[in-house]
Amino acid sequence: MSITEKQTNGSKIAYFSMEIGLKDDIPTFSGGLGILAGDTIKSGADLNLPLVAVTLIYHKGYFKQDIDDRGRQIESPAIWDPSELMKMAPEKVNVTIEGRNVYIQAWVYFVKSPKGGEVPVIFLDTNLPENSEEDRELTYHLYGRDDNYRIKQEVILGIGGVKMLKMLGFQIKKYHMNEGHAAFLTLELLHQLKNDLEDASDETSMWDFETVKELCVFTTHTPVDAGHDRFSYDLYRSVIGEYFPENILRELAGEENLNMTLLALNLSNDVNGVAKKHGEVSQNMFPGYKINSITNGVHSYTWTCDSFKKLFDKYIPGWANEPELFVRTDMIPHNELWNAHSEAKKILINYVNSLQAVNMDYETLTIGFARRFATYKRASLIFNDLERLERIASGKIQLIFAGKAHPKDEGGKKLIEDIFSYSDKLKGKINIVFINNYNMETALKIVSGVDVWLNNPIRPLEASGTSGMKAAHNGVLNFSVLDGWWIEGHIEGDTGWSIGPESTEIAPDDNANEIDTNDLYNKLEKIIIPTFYQDRDKWINMMKSAIGKNAYYFNTHRMMLRYVTEAYIK
Ligand SMILES: *Cc1c(COP(=O)(O)O)cnc(C)c1O
Predict the structure, then answer these.
(1) What integer is the mean pLDDT of 135-161?
(2) Packing angle, helices 386-393 and 512-523, rounded to 10
(3) Domain range list for the chain
(4) Is the pLDDT of residue 429 over 70?
(5) CATH of domain 5-193+204-297+559-568
């Protein structure tokens, strides 16, 4: 028995997420959404919040990335063995898919905080002998295959998840949907409540929408319309049509398509965007709903490198569980801060040199860019005008890239190839490397070991972004387009630098690539390169501002306290 009475005691907040990134040994995440979920859970444990998380086990992970010598991405399964890290609970539940019973069991992993709190994470698994081969494979791949596969996974997550929590003995006072993928949970809640209302007369009043709304909190994560899951009602009918009346579902989730975001919006009394700007953009996308915003954060302890942990322990004891203490960052002597940074940089450069014959050095201004290779993030923007880049930066900067493109995203994969070809063209002038198989370990190495963190998405598509917050925790300066969290964290020349105009001053179809590249080159040439090499004191003061003003605020401890007061216990 892996769940004890003590662990199910009292009523909890159930946090549902299609992906959760706790550590690389549990490869059930693809990017920022999953890392955010993992950081949320870790802060929940540190703050002793009554939280339980639900996701799927993905036996073959997202994927392992290799890159050939021309920059082409090669994908293979990231196979792992859950039994090395967690135990399977004996309880079983089932959901009906295409008329078949699909059985679900749960692996239970405990995220334990040194402060004593712990959060169980329920990993749902259909890879059981009583299921058909096809159904066993439903918990193999994260974001794999087609819509048919995806809707079934969402049935398992939403409907299976609610059933499993009940079966395991959890009492739930709030259901928090981290993105629309989990929105089927609302239908299962309607079902469970229906049994309490058996004498209701007509069909609509059988369903207790108001109580479900009270129970549900929804965080939306993308301002890209295409980023919201939509399924055809034909698919719905063939997969779970019997489960919930389609005419009522159409009222809740859209007449044309089953829109998971709409379903979540219609059945949650509390809806949040992930940064102020994103909240506004979402509000415009969905007029008629009240959309609040709680800006994302990162888990401070997880995203601070060893040399900075040591430094913070010495000068700001207690920082990890009380990041507000970063307000005292100015106490740290300049030379000790610089030494901690140099140590992190050395680790990164040694690592990079051990992977490839690049000969990067410790002294050169090093710029990092690592995240999912989705095209809107414009990974190759800095190479827009090679001649100009060469003129201003030859011998003065080195560049480190990493990131996975979704296996079906040809545009994203092309960006990786482009970076390889630019790297060839700039050989001997600007050293460029691409680190394979981006994961949490390399993320920490890069966000702490570079001098500048580059981010140049198309506005307003970066709902929040979190890697820049990780950089700030390590005194690494952000050089970023004013989008997502950076609109709130940016003070020009103090916490970092902006690229291009404010988001209100530019329409998506303006010539943003040109405008942004121009500003990027200008600032690199006139401000960033000179400051780095000629005004180290100013640079170190900026590092302190990044920590004292950005890490101070953009952490999941602050974020979770806000979810508690604005969503969970309202
Ligand atoms: C933090 C993190 C991300 C998110 O990066 P963004 O720049 O915010 O998109 C993605 N992948 C990994 C492995 C991360 O650690």
Answers:
(1) 97
(2) 10
(3) 5-193+204-297+559-568, 306-371+434-554
(4) yes
(5) 3.40.50.2000
Q: Ligand 1 test: best mutation among 371, 435, 437, most atoms within 8 Å of CB?
A: 371
- In angstroms, the CA 313 to CA 216 distance is 39
Instruction: Provide the H-helix boundaries in 86-208.
Output: 133-136, 147-155, 161-167, 185-194
3-state secondary structure 390-418: HHHHCCCEEEEEECCCCCCCHHHHHHHHH
What is the separation of C-alpha 74 from the centre of its chain, rounded to a whole number of angstroms?
A: 23
Cβ pair 377, 406 in contact under 8 A:
no
Span from the CA of 180 to the centroid of ligand 1 (angstroms): 20
Residue 30 Cα to ligand 1 middle (Å): 9
Q: Residue 28 in 3-state DSSP?
A: coil
pLDDT value, residue 1: 45
Q: Determine the Cα–Cα distance for residues 487 and 273; give it in Å rounded to an integer.
A: 14
- Ligand 1 pocket: which of 372, 375, 456 to mutate (most atoms within 8 A of CB): 372
For residues 488 and 496, is the Cβ–Cβ distance under 8 A? Answer: no
Strand order in the sheet with 397-402: 431-435, 397-402, 365-370, 452-455, 477-481, 496-499
User: What residue's CA is closest to ligand 1, atom 2?
Assistant: 32
Question: Does 195 score more than 90 pLDDT?
Answer: no
Q: Which of 36, 57, 43 is nearest to 371 (CA)?
A: 36
CATH architecture, range 306-371+434-554: 3-Layer(aba) Sandwich (3.40)
Domain 5-193+204-297+559-568 matches domain 306-371+434-554 at the CATH topology level: yes
How far does residue 305's CA lie from ligand 1's centre (Å)? 16
Mean pLDDT throughout 220-228? 86
Distance CA 168, CA 14 (A): 13
Q: How would you list the strands of the sheet with 11-17, edge to edge?
A: 87-97, 100-112, 118-125, 51-56, 11-17, 171-178, 216-219, 270-273, 291-293
Atom 11 of ligand 1, nearest CA residue: 31
Our mutation pick for probing the ligand 1 site, out of 23, 33, 467, 554, counting the most ligand atoms within 8 A of Cβ, is 467
Rg from Cα positions in the chain: 24
Element spanning 443, H or E: helix 440-449
Which residues does ligand 1 sit against, CB inside 6 Å? 31-32, 35, 371-372, 438-440, 443, 465-467, 470
End-to-end CA distance of the chain: 34
DSSP state of 156: I
> In whole angstroms, what is the distance from residue 323 CA to residue 464 CA?
20
Interatomic CA distance for residues 448 and 67, integer angstroms: 24
Q: What is the rounded average pLDDT for all residues in the chain?
A: 95
Does pTM surpass 0.90?
yes
Phi, psi of 536 (to 5 degrees): -60, -35
